[in-house]
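Quick entry between incubations.
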Amino acid sequence: MGKIVIDPVSRIEGHLKVEAVVDDGEVKEAKSAGMLFRGLELIMRDRDPRDAQRITQRICGVCPTSHSIAATLNLDSAFGIADKIPDNGRIIRNLILGAAHIADHILHFYHLVALDYVDVAKLAKYEGNNPALNSIKDFIVRGELGPFVPRYEGDYRLPDNVNEQAIAHYVAAFDMRRKSQAMLSLFGGKMPHNMGIIPGGVASVPAVDNMTSFLWRLKELQEFIDNVYLPDVLAVAQVYSDYLEIGCGCGKLLAYGSYELDGKEADLTKRKRLFKPGTTSTDLKFGDFKPDKIAEEVKHSWYADSISGKHPSRGDVIPDEEKSGAYSWLKSPRYDGMVFEVGPLARIMVNYVGGNTMVKNLVDSTLSQVNLKPAAMFSTMGRNLARALETKLIADSMVDWILQLKPGEPAYVSYELPEEAMGMGLVGAARGALGHWIEIKEGKIANYQVITPSTWNISPMDDKNQPGPLEQAITGTKIRDEANPFEIVRIVRSFDPCLACSVHLLSSKGRDLGKFKVC
Amino acid sequence: MKGSDIKEYPAVWLQAAGCTGCSVSLLNVINPSIKNLLVDQVIPGHHINLRFHPTVMAGAGAPAIDIMVDTSQKKKGGYILIVEGAIPTAKNGIHGVVGERDGKPVTMLSWVEELAKDALAVIALGSCAAFGGIPAAYPNPTECRSVGEVLQTKGINTPLVNIPGCPPHPDWFVGTVASILLTGLPGPEDIDEHRRPKAFFGQTIHENCPRRAYYDENKFAKKFGDPGCNYELGCRGPITHADCPVRLWNDKTNWCVGCGATCIGCTEPGFFDISPLYEKFSEAALPEEV
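Done. Structure below.
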């Protein structure tokens, strides 16, 4: 038995902790744990329901837009206007969310993931004439290498020319994600934390100049996605092809669906969306999605056991920092009592098996380029590839949406605030299925519950002691060099976790996450 | 300029109870670009050496923690500490932890104390670090405090600059850092009573708002999308100090009121407890000079 500690895991959002027991070079047991509790659901109580959108965006500055969509879908349903949002409002919300997803996925691959595969230090020997690369070379030669060193050493395999190109793209990608957020701000006002999305629609009426500007900004991003991002993901996947098998995880996938194509259907599970909701698994069979099957368990979380097993619409938050056997601030969301992974991989594969031709055609044509079968998608690299494929599908769809806008026509509908109501908002966030639930009493928020994608993916063991998706993905992985456990961080980052965390590999004595000790 | 002529300023960026939005906002900086900030000289002869940043840095785990500790011990008085997020203080800070030492988790509270003590300056970036922000909003379940409150409680006198905003505009951060490198720490005449640089927070949104003429003529929007001043929809422009209307956000593309929304007062202390956000706030809250 060996012990490796990785704490904190960088290049993710938030505060996470994972522990794993290693024996004979293989992970025998892994635990993941969220290490920050803010109690936002407690802060929401007794406030004006409309403020939920502004507050819940602040759950995450990397993916605030998804929260603004989930919150407004939630409020629209509670206010009884889910089928009354003007088409302009529905479409502009889609455009804002799409711009956020493009920025997010580019950021994820180039700035959060790439440094696990690309060797920046190698540029010390660069002899070409790319000014960006030469400025990085100068920086390396000066010897103050933060933030690129320290890092894990060893398993950097890209050939020099591919490596150099990837670093040039790392720099270019900074501009691209920034430009996508600027595109978003045309309708969203600013990013992070857009201001445009509000209950009832969006805050402004579309104008021709903004639509045109959006379209041409989008075209530049499409060129980058098609000619740089997608090819880079495939190039890295081919060199690191063992990661098409490493990190499969629980093998069961869940998607809520996203991008509203129909403004007249109030029921989110029946509404026509670009990505449909559903489940699938390594057997590649499609299953219907029923929101009633979601429940959150807390046996291993720092919350009172009395709140375990509840549907989020009846969920609660009662912290218990001293609870024996608990090791995370995350709850364990389960679907029909089973462990499900969420994320772009789930969205792509659910739609692949669910008869979405647009998705199926792109997945098949891409996989055939590199001689892979759909089974390869259930892997570390498959998650990164699904994210890139989804980025292309969203960007291409956005072109049509812009042209559907009607300049000068309303994008917002007025509403009455209800005294008593329940609501639900489900959306496919950048990192996966995101749900918001609200209960309004006496015109105020009586209860507000959020289940984020990373709560699904990074969840601790549940009431039946089933490990969460990330824990399952790490368990069984062979670690080549325990001092440089690339395998663990590559798996973790393929989930694009959205919480600050730390990863530990425990000793055989292990399980010391169970008792929290403050330094 | 040769490497030896370049002055290196080590920087440690600690994320506490926040959402990483301040970091993402910094990535949106245009001139200089984020690449310029990370590897080039932000001002000729001056390079910010960002040694620890959870979202950007290559390293993870113990080596990353080591470099943070190493910076505070070997560069005493010479490094800049940037804090993003509020500091949970309930139960000795148990609700927020970053990394471990000697097998024990280290709270954000103890990191701030340890790192702030010997820093050249502390920048509390974003409204959570500057004023407590959302995690400190009522009922403040984890007793979150601003960096300033923590430093005061611990008796730490390191110079502190608050750059609020949810998120802060990247220019506010870069401008403040550049100003420190060029002319030294801001004097009392450069910052307001909330320790905000007057260069960016010296005027209210209302003073520079392109919809101000509507306000002066009593033309108010009754619902979103209407022409008119958004005051009756809840706009906090009259009581919010920041230069958003003239600086603009995201490649100078737009800003909150520009997209038809209201200013929600995100650069002010008490942000999010001056609620509900979609109701006109009381006249009594208006500052006298407006």
